[in-house]
Fold each of these.
Amino acid sequence: MFTFTIRRLILTVPTLLFISLVIFLIVKLSPSDPTGNLPLTIPSEVREQIREALGVNKPLLVQYLLWLKQFFWLEPLIYLENLTGWDLGTEGKVRLISYQTRSPVMDLIMQRMPQTLTVVGTAYLVGILIALPIGIISAYKQYSVFDQAGTFISMIGFSVPPFFSGVLVIVLFSVIIPSDSFFWLPSIYDTTHEVVDWESFKYQFRQMIMPVMVLALQITAQISRFTRASMLDNLNQDYVRTARAKGMSESVTVMKHVLRNSMIPVVTVIALGIPSIFGGAIITEQVFKVNGLGQLLIIAIQGGDVPTVQTLTFIFAILIVLFNLIADILYGLLDPRIRYD
Amino acid sequence: MTEVTATSADAPKKAPRNQWWDVWDQFKSHKGAMLGFVVFMTIVLGVLFGPMLWHFDPTFIDIRARNQGPSWAHPMGTDQLGRDTFARMLSGGRVSLAVGMTAMALSLVVGTFVGVLAGYFKRLDGLLMRTTDLFLALPLLPLLLVIIMLFRDKLSATFGPEGGIFILMVSAIGITSWMQTARIVRGDVLALKEREFVLAARSIGTPNRRMITRHVLPNVLSPILVSATLGIANAIITESALSFLGLGFPPDFPTWGRLLFDSVDYLQQYPERVIWPGLAISLTVLSVNYMGDGLRDALDPRIRGR
Amino acid sequence: MKLKIALMGAVAASAIAPMAFADAHEGERGRDGNVSIIYWQAPSILNPFLSGGTKDIEAASMIIEPLARYNQDGALVPWLVDEVPTVENGGVSEDLTSITWKITPGIVWADGTPFTSADVKFTADYCMNPDGGCAQVTKFENVTNVEAVDDLTVKVTFGGPTPFPYGPFVGGESPIIQAAQFANCMGAAASSCSTENFNPVGTGPFKVVEFKPNDVITMEANELYRQEGKPAFASVTFKGGGDATAAGRAVMETGEFDYAWNLQLAPDVIANMEAGGKGTPVAGFGPLVERIMLNQTNPSPDLGPEERSVIRPHPFLGDEAVYKALSMAIDRPLLVEIGYGQAGKVTCNWIPAPAAVNSDTFDCSTQDIAGANAMLEAAGWVDSNGNGTRDKDGVELNMLYQTSTNAVRQDFQALIKQWWSEIGVGVELRNIDASVFFGGDAASPDTFQKFYADVEMYANTFNGTDPQSYLANGLCKNAPMPSTQWQGENISRFCDEAYDALHKELTNTANADERARIARELNDIMVSKGGMIPLVHRGRLSAHANSLGGVVLNVWDSELWNVADWYRTGN
């Protein structure tokens, strides 16, 4: 397993380089223009000058190599400088600059990270914590009332997109409920809010309820369905009968043997989902104005901001590759028969 | 399915019953599955034949009759331009169901194929899974815009405007949503192929092809069925997102996803407008889910005997 | 008797007004706490010279200011100067080649240093630097020299007679930035100055505390602001993001915000939000017109890339009967009612504002399907093969009608398609994502400049009150072509010798009335010769909380132009 991990880690480097090239080509090929969002009153010669100043018209290869150098060399150096206070000679070097804000892309990402991790991360955690018990109980008591209700809610939850469910909860909790009521919730997420004491924590909690719940609904639906299906598969296996026959208690049989063997698809889904925490939830962030990484990405795409799109997508790619590797390692731990060597 | 009904007349007389007959028996006895089947067939038949029977044209504008609530003339009311919502739901369902089912099927086939190959053959695993990583990492929106730019005009020229757009949309959704199925199927196959019964089958020299179709595929069916249910919902919603990008059908052409999106602004004044498409999508997904449950039970010989 | 009552009413009103003024309007700086503003497009940068986006210009206008501004009526008002220079007061030279601004003495930047003519000259140098990619460089068009005569006097010299010299340093697009702060940000270095671009030192009522790009700006009152007791608010929360619906809801229904910008929503949605009772929508009208552009070139997909939408003429849109009939078949009052409500007016003109340049030649307020049908019949367009669309000499009246993705535009498309089908014109609709449609990517077939369609719908406007450069959009030479990478503002590829000649005359005319007359004539040529079908004169609709006083909606300049005068009312 150890040699497998090392080999895979080494292999990720060429994989990621290739992915970065493909992402770059797609982003550059797609019809986008950093001056596309400007008012029509700005004439085309001026637009051309702006593009020239941004370096949009340089040859593709030059732009790609420049991005590689900035992302893999300059930005880590600057990060190191900030961390240690050493002078590594980055002064005056052109950093990875966003077309829209003319500021370093990495700073933008760092700025957005907290709210995305808080909101989307919490939603994921809540989603998993609700989904696993629902999935397990639903499978164990198949076709019980609990199972039927769980199925119904999770299916509705998955087929109602957040652009609708988000607006629905806003109308219910921010518009219909009067704003002086205890149950009123803010419809606009305040990203400048800082938690310093109990009162401010309560406000933070209130403003997180709606976005977290809307996101968690989707996540719960997905994970609980896979858990249930996988548990059902295993509950009818011979080894369960054997365990019961040996006189093992029901809870040990289910929680230890069945659950462990059912976790492979669940681990896969969760491993695919964790990078998306970083990717943010584009629609939910828009609906509640959380303005995290998802909103940064969508604005950058609409604004033809190639450096931002490229960098964000690439970091996302790194996480995908890493978490899929972690999933593969976990398979081996869950089921020792699985071998990669 | 048609084969089953064709042979059903003389099947009971023969001594060894066709195993699909058992499957059908088991499926029938599953209440949820039957209910799902009936609802689903109602929706399918409704959207197939409804537009021919219903006298309103979904694009006809009667501006004096706008923003009406449900009535005998307009059972689901009218929209902000006075178009009949019922007619729009019926013809919108055609597109949504066709796109949803086809795109889901495409993504399942690709996902299962890649997943089984990667899990079963160690030599292919690395390459296939790195390709999956690549597809997972691609930024969806720019990718779709590139697809539109490169292929829309060519496909329209070859298959006609509507056929071209349908193919484009289905393949766009298909190729951007197969990865999860592939990862899940591969994970299950990795574990499966070390099980005793697989080792036993291999020891008697079963060829790979039959190993996969006989022993591996039936045992990874349940996650595939879950993916199918989730995939339909995903495809119907993604279709509406595509039409906003300009990749979908013309803007006056209704689909469920689009009706839902357009009516969100009117949530407070005319809540029924959101309810109809929301209900249609949810019902479709629920019915497919229950059919999937029934099918899974029916195909599992351990349950079938009970 | 009635007159007397009316007079008494007027007297009473004028007596109450100053009291209200005294009650809520005056006091010490920062007395009213926090004001929160929501823009559904989030500001990315606070330097208008590097962005040009409306959201960025308006956010920056609370911090940095120009020498003169347009007020809500489109009239120039002095801002950092004592008076607006004119030929009459000697500020503009007789030969119209220079303008001299006299800065009001005593103005200081928010950091306490004096505001001088050197800052003004620096601003011009900054924007005119060819490597900087300045988005507002057209404001400095034809400027040959900017000279700081003394500390408080700036002289701008133009390359030739300039009848309208109020380009540089006027309006929200051209504010003054501090020379000391931006000294190292000239030209190519402009992009690396993110601290300066995010936190410009200004003379305006507020200064930046924290700027989170594309998210939120926190501001506080500028203690050194030149007007006593202003601004009334101690701090500002300027939130960005989301969509227009959510912004409107936050002001008028939930009451979380005080001001929401540019609510492009269906009238009944706005009406429902207003019923929420927490805020009020306000509308103002600039020269923004929603129109259908008629392609003067042939967009057939059978043509090669060098010919499609390049070679003239269009198969049928050049026929007067056709484009007149298309216009007559449209019910404009209904479009206004459905799409814009109080934020729209029927117009038949390309340039409906300011009032002086609004032509009254045409009347298009009534739909005339029968008349349109008769006109097409008379011109020989008949449905000879019975397929539902008219044809003539083998040319069918079939059109592709494209626009950007936007709920109101899709409703318009559906309505107009139905009307046109009633006069025997077949229409295929297409909607394209706005970032692609308005993005100038020469490789995409879907941009509005490429115009690979017969007709397309969008809105356009101009800055300030002088339409000369906007009217240049109809000049033959400005048509987008492959050789210019499809750049150019003459989207319909309109080409008319009389038009070009008349526009030349406009550039040499100084008299305001004469300029307005020529502008009206140019408008008439464009519309009557089938360059476009104007549909709706669109206003800007914003909303403010009922407790926010002093809001004066201004469409000629930044909407936040008088934010220093805003205050909290009692209720």
Note: Residues 102 and 326 of chain A are 36 Å apart (CA to CA).
Amino acid sequence: MRPRKKFVTKNNNIIDMVQFILFPALSPTMETGKIARWLVKIGDMVEPGDELMEVETDKAVMVHESIETGKIGAILVEEGGEEISVNTPIAVILDEGEVMEDVDLTTLSTLPSSNEKKQEKNELSAPVAQKPSDNNIATKRDNEKNKTKKIFITPLARAIAKQNKINIEQITGTGPLGRIIKKDIEEALANASHKPLGDASMFSANKQAESFELSKMRKTIAQRLVAAKRNIPHFYLKVSCNADKLMEAREAFNEESQVRISINDIIVKACAQSLMKVPDVNRQFNEDSIIQYKDADISIAVSVEEGLYTPIIFKAQELSLSEIAIQTKSLSEKAKLGTLLPSEYEGGSFSISNLGMFGISEFSAIINPPQASILAVGAIEKSILLDEKTEQMRIGHKMNLTLSCDHRIIDGVLGARFLNTIKSYLEEPIKLFV
Amino acid sequence: MHDSYDVAIIGAGPGGYVCAIRAAQLGLKTLIIEKENLGGVCLNWGCIPTKSLLSSARVYDEIKHAGEYGIVVDNVASDVKKIVERSRKIAKKLSMGVAYLMKKNAIEHIKGTARFIDKNTLQIKTQTIEQQISAKNIVVATGANAKDLPSIQADHETIWNYRDALQVKKFPKSLLIAGSGAIGIEFASFFNSFGVDVTVVEAAAHILPTEDIEISQMAQKEYEKAGITFLTSTLLSDCQLQADQVTVTLDNKGNTQTRSAEKLLLAIGIKPQIDDLNLETIQVKTHKGHIVTNKTCQTNIAHIYAIGDVTSPPWLAHKASHEGVIVAEAIAGDASKHGLETTHIPGCIYAHPQVASIGLNEQAAKEKGYDIMVGRFPFSAVGKALTIGKSQGMIKTIVDKKTQEILGVHMVGEDVTELINTISVAKHAEITGAELIGTVFAHPTLSEGLHESFLDAVSRVIHM
């Protein structure tokens, strides 16, 4: 468990020790998030297991529970505010006999932030063991200031910054006590030394257009996909499957199964089996090394109103079709409600994106990093098919599959072998049960 | 051998004496030179005694209207001698207060005049001696005096300036006032309250020409209701003195008429007092009679500063005081990066009813290219105003549509000179209309009108 208990000393001396609630990391990769809603208020008594707050990450909103006992003495970060780093002190928790009046919050800035956490792990575990030298304090403070400082800005300056899409984090305040005032924003505008949040100049020409702030999720999607498309050398393999037997199989399965089994569930199963058969695809490129996965942990793209989630069917190779169907249904619902846990969408060795239900014949997907491939599934369409044996034309069902591969670890032949394996399962679903 | 100071300040008005106190607080060896009484015009011949006179007028007005409140008062009479005496006493008391503050802060005070010998040396002349002092920094805070008309000069008998009016011995039957700025309007209101037949002549198209037109029109109506006559767009072209009256020729866009009154008060403006300073020798830059300064009140000579009425408008005591602080801090090396924002300086007129404003008026805001929202709220819809029997007037707010910046607030009505400070705070702290709308204003207070006016600007007014 990450350290959650911190102490702060008054005037850098060990006088008062106050316990803080730190902003939690809900997953190993989480760096920042927001407090969507506080579920406690100042003065509330909390015990381990009590619901403290709703935390919004780039993927979900989750209730976070207390592991401390005590009284909420102060709430340091308001709900719905700016992004905050993991391990930022967000509330003061008082033991019996402690009162807020004794707490010197001005020393807050001496607390290490999440970025420093890694380098300073040892120091963290014994934060009050020694009085740090003045030098140390100064550097730490400066670092901290840049990281998690609250930006003091007048309402008017904020309004003008917003109007002009100025990033206020870049601006030094010259008002009372370093507050950012109107003049600072105007100066920034004049110098254009700021980083624009968007290209406002192009936008303003179009009077009909409106500007909205990106949601957290949209920002994450944007960042990840730009990185994926830029960093991963994609290549694409396309294949057309005869889907007649797939359609028949689904009917047969659904006659037997308690839960409704979809084409997608069969595709998940087919991919899982194929990953077992062609394990070289079930890999991740890791700069100097290759990570080989043992299980077919298959991410399935689920569209929600503000973006998409990729919850994972873990160990899909071991699951029956009905188990896959049940899990898929449950994960999709959670995705739509925004209640997915990070453990339900982080990881995964392979992805499936299916736009067949939207009538898309075929498309090419962007790889979901750090995975090495993704299968884009098109719609099952009636088509004129050529029977290879009889060389007769007939009307049947076909489905197009496109496999996007990371060429750094998957070469064309390997990809082709894998895609053909998937195709063979989907064209003869009975093989799935060998 | 002569004494040497860190700062020498010429003039002990609200600019000079505040500058001296702040300089002394910051550990600077400070000298202040004043030719008259400590406190300057503001305290001795301006803000303070006029407010005292207007308070007497207010009491008199209240008593005259006591019946409306169910109070019966008979045989109301005024005693002009006591009214003036009271105002002199208050001025004297405050002036002594300033003397105490000089002593308390170990500021050296010389009663006399000063003129520049060179950039660091002043020749000081008192009633008894002449001496030279040198100072690292010199602050010119000599203020301003009443302007005469080119063709008409005050004779202090029939033709008054503000000092004569302040020391009135007997209320005249009739009074002509040239100029409808703050001084003209305040005297008009005072004399009118005591039954003097007052006519105000204004060259501009509206009275209180620097105020928002809507406010000045509303104020004019209220003053006319109280009995004052206004002649706007009218020039005073000639003046004949007779035995017991003065007859002036008035020119309204080519139509001339004559008008007589027992007294004529010149209230057409002020001119900076810089003539005796010998500024030419050290080549301090001036423009149209006032000293040119930068935002920290420095003149073209780095260690010579100028504050208050000797500099550019607005000519207000609180502006001078604020500049005094800016200068003292600049000299002590503690300069703020920002000078005084003109649009953050409130202006007040203490006639009945009062006028107060801050920032841009509607016309100026539009001329500057702002896309504005305008809110208006009448005191007739404010509960507190009705209970105190002062329902005349209104509050007008001008807000930038994009940012909700408070561009200007303009008011006419009871005690609006107190309400304006709320907006001064808001403007300085850069609070916008959005925050004011979310603010809880106590009920019942006149300030609720401010709240409603901001609400009106965004079409959310409640009580209208």
Note: The CA atoms of residues 235 and 405 of chain A lie 5 Å apart.
